[in-house]
Amino acid sequence: MRSSMWGRCQEGSGEWDLKVIQMIGKNVLAVSAHADDVEIGCGGTVALHVKKGDNVIILVMAESSYTFYDGTVLRTIEEGKKEEEKAAKVLGAKLINLEFKSKEVPYSVKSVEAINKVIDDYRIDTIYTHWYHDTHQDHRRTTQSVLSAGRHVKNILMYEPEYPAGRSYLGFHNQYYVNIASTFEKKMEALKEHKSQVEKYGDVLLKAVEARARHRGYEINTEYAECFEVLRLLGEI
Ligand SMILES: [Zn+2]
Questions:
Q1: Phi/psi at 196 (nearest 5 deg)?
Q2: Per-residue pLDDT for the chain (237 aa), expressed as one digit of tens each?
């Protein structure tokens, strides 16, 4: 047991993190432009919601394939589909893929209404999405669409961007922390299901994700954490 300005927390027990996360969520939507963005950005938080008993849906905007501008195929549709399904299963979340074209995810009536339907169908009260100032056009348009579709949703939090996307002249504001000490292993297990991506970026991707979780954890006196910038958060006292 350690005490700090953040209060007393039993490292790794999950008690502290569950109490915090109980403030938000019941029907949770974790949105990502591409398969694997959720695992990298908020996989530990998703697993924590599932552990608490919340209903979690991972909503992927783009079809599962990804091709570089020179034609190099980084992930085929078949690979991507298999990987995103396995990863969602590890986290205990339901997966929905809207199958917009990769790199051409729109901010349009179509994207807004498709997200709106999921929000209504599942009575979503908490959304996790990309950082608004992310440098990847798909990430940015996804969050623009989420903002329009989620106009009545109580809580909207943006997860921290990960290289190669996200480096911008604007800085990410580390406003809201979730202690993921109890679900970090699950986050990494889910991320490793994206085999094509792990092969492409190598061990360095896994190390970078772990380093960030450790860094954010250190900031709140725990082993691992994920960090969010707040778009909207309904206070409950
Ligand atoms: Zn992405």
A1: -65, -35
A2: 444 433 344 444 556 566 555 567 789 999 999 989 999 999 999 999 999 999 999 999 998 777 777 878 777 888 888 999 999 999 999 999 999 998 999 999 999 999 999 999 999 999 999 999 999 999 999 999 999 999 999 999 999 998 777 778 889 999 999 999 999 999 999 999 998 888 877 889 999 999 999 999 999 999 999 999 999 998 777
Ligand 1 center–CA 205 separation, angstroms? 14
User: Cα of 117 to ligand 1 centre, how many Å?
Assistant: 22
- The structural domains of the chain, ordered by start, are 12-232 (3.40.50.10320)
Ligand 1 mean position, distance from CA 142 (Å): 10
**162 CA → ligand 1 middle, Å:** 9
Q: 223 CA to middle of ligand 1, Å?
A: 26
CA of 206 from ligand 1 middle (Å) equals 16
Please tell me the distance between residue 229's alpha carbon and the centre of ligand 1 in angstroms. 18
Q: Kindly report the pTM of this predicted structure.
A: 0.88
Span from the CA of 166 to the centroid of ligand 1 (angstroms): 10
